[in-house]
């Protein structure tokens, strides 16, 4: 057995020691930097936990605890917002207000309410990205997942609630309805909002969403807030004023009263009647709403022309869509134009309607007129009409600043798209161009479809999209766009090799007919 020499005790390595640096010795600048990093990563819970270290950490953490306040249409949430505004430090750190303005639908009886029970989290269990028709190249696994989600959508959530629980939940739901009606009678809590915004001097951004329009859908916080009533707010089409009209009015009137210098306003979906005169919106109220926009740099409007929402009926029956009324009102009154052009420092304008049947609900001349924004860099129009001269002059007025353009489902009432895009190419120096939906003109043969859904083309963009957008950005020698060839090639490759690309069904005779547009070219740049 080998001998092992014992080392003298004095030559052994000392036991490891742990050196600690007291967090209380950190300078304030380092503590601020730590909180800033947590803010960038949206780790609000970690910020709250870090504040518990000591009073100094708590005081510094207050500056980063709440940068965005979240509000939805419930009295307790307005009171919570008021508590935030009363804090001497936190109230000054709020820069964004995200308002989910959806309301609960009113059902005539408990039986009808039972048929519309919402199970929190049920929709989130569907496949990521929502229910999308599988592409022709989808795997068997993707097809099975689609079928499973489709069955789930068709049959709805399984309910296992007892009658006692249902009765209790219905009483809670009825209480929420009564609470909402009280807030409506108080002009959508205008008084509370005025008091709150007066104490939030650094509020710069307001986002108001209904019908899951903004931020990719309904938040889990709102679902949780109403889950004990087994209902979830969606839209606001049962009120007399239209979806989101009262909520938007109260927010903007309060912002004007508080003298806020807002920089961003995003609203959708909001009923088109938000800019009309009514018993609650006289001309003075409209002027206050406009004044609230005087410092706005980003304005996003998603405007609805539907007076009600009834699931499948929304798509099958357009009798409730108020496109003619909206178009006539816009032509006879300048309220929407006054609202949009009350933003002299505007840098981005997203102007979107939701329907163009039987024709677009707004024209550019009625919506923006001949106004010129001196800093406009980004513009997007959807479901709007314009004559060629009006749109060309808009591009010319903003040629020195405009760099990004998106047009979706746009109608030219006079002129033609080849001529218009050629003049746009000459006037603008674009960094990004996007065309989508149906671009049509007064000529019934001039109708071009861009941006086919990714689920129908294997994730590939149609060649017509690529060629036209490339021309707008880089010009060229005048590409000849043979639509018959481009669309035929796209459909044969990505959609259905046996389907006639331009076929459609005549709804009166059920006869399949074929429509073929003519080719168009731009000429040299």
From TrEMBL:
Source organism, top-level taxon: Eukaryota
Signal peptide: none
Residue ranges of every copy of the F-box domain listed in the record: 20-76
Record's protein name: F-box domain-containing protein
InterPro entries named in the record: F-box-like_dom_sf, F-box_dom
Entry's transmembrane regions: none
PROSITE patterns in the cross-refs: FBOX
């Amino acid at each position: 057995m080998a001998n092992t020499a014992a080392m003298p005790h004095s030559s052994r390595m000392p036991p490891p020691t742990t050196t600690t640096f007291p967090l209380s010795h950190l300078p304030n600048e380092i503590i601020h930097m730590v909180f800033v990093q947590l803010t960038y990563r949206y780790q609000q819970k970690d910020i709250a936990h870090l504040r518990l270290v000591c009073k100094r950490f708590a005081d510094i953490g207050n500056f980063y605890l709440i940068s965005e306040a979240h509000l939805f249409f419930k009295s307790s949430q307005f009171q919570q917002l008021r508590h935030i505004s009363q804090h001497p430090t936190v109230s000054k750190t709020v820069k964004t207000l995200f308002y989910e303005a959806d309301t609960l639908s009113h059902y005539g009886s408990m039986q009808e309410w039972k048929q519309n029970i919402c199970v929190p989290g049920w929709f989130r269990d569907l496949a990521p990205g929502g229910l999308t028709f599988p592409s022709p190249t989808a795997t068997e696994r993707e097809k099975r997942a689609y079928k499973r989600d489709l069955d789930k959508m068709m049959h709805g959530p399984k309910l296992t609630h007892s009658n006692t629980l249902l009765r209790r939940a219905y009483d809670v739901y009825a209480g929420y309805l009564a609470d909402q009606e009280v807030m409506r009678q108080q002009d959508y809590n205008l008084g509370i909002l005025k008091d709150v915004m007066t104490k939030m001097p650094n509020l710069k951004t307001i986002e108001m969403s209904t019908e899951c329009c903004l931020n990719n859908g309904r938040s889990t916080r709102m679902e949780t807030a109403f889950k004990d009533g087994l209902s979830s707010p969606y839209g606001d089409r049962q009120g007399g004023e239209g979806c989101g009209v009262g909520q938007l009015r109260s927010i903007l009137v309060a912002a004007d009263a508080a003298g806020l210098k807002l920089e961003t306003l995003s609203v959708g979906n909001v009923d088109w009647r938000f800019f009309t005169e009514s018993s609650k919106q006289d001309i003075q109220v409209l002027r206050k709403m406009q004044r609230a926009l005087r410092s706005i740099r980003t304005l996003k409007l998603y405007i609805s022309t539907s007076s009600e929402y009834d699931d499948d009926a929304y798509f099958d029956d357009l009798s409730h869509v108020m496109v003619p009324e909206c178009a006539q009102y816009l032509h006879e009154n300048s309220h929407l134009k006054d609202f949009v052009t009350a933003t002299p420092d505007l840098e981005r304008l997203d102007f979107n309607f939701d329907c163009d049947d039987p024709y677009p609900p707004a024209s550019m001349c009625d919506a923006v007129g001949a106004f010129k924004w001196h800093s406009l860099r980004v513009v997007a129009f959807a479901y709007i009409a314009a004559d060629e001269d009006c749109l060309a002059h808009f591009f010319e007025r903003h040629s020195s600043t405009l760099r990004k353009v998106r047009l979706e489902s746009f109608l030219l009432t006079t002129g033609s798209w080849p001529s218009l895009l050629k003049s746009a190419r000459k006037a603008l120096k674009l960094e990004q161009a996007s065309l989508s939906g149906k671009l049509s003109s007064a000529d019934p043969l001039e109708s071009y479809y861009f941006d086919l859904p990714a689920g129908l083309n294997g994730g590939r963009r149609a060649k017509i999209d690529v060629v036209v957008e490339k021309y707008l950005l880089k010009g060229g020698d005048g590409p000849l766009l043979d639509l018959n060839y481009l669309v035929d090639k796209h459909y044969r490759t990505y959609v259905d090799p046996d389907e006639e690309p331009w076929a459609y069904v005549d709804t009166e005779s059920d006869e399949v007919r074929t429509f073929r547009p003519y080719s168009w070219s731009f000429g040299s740049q």
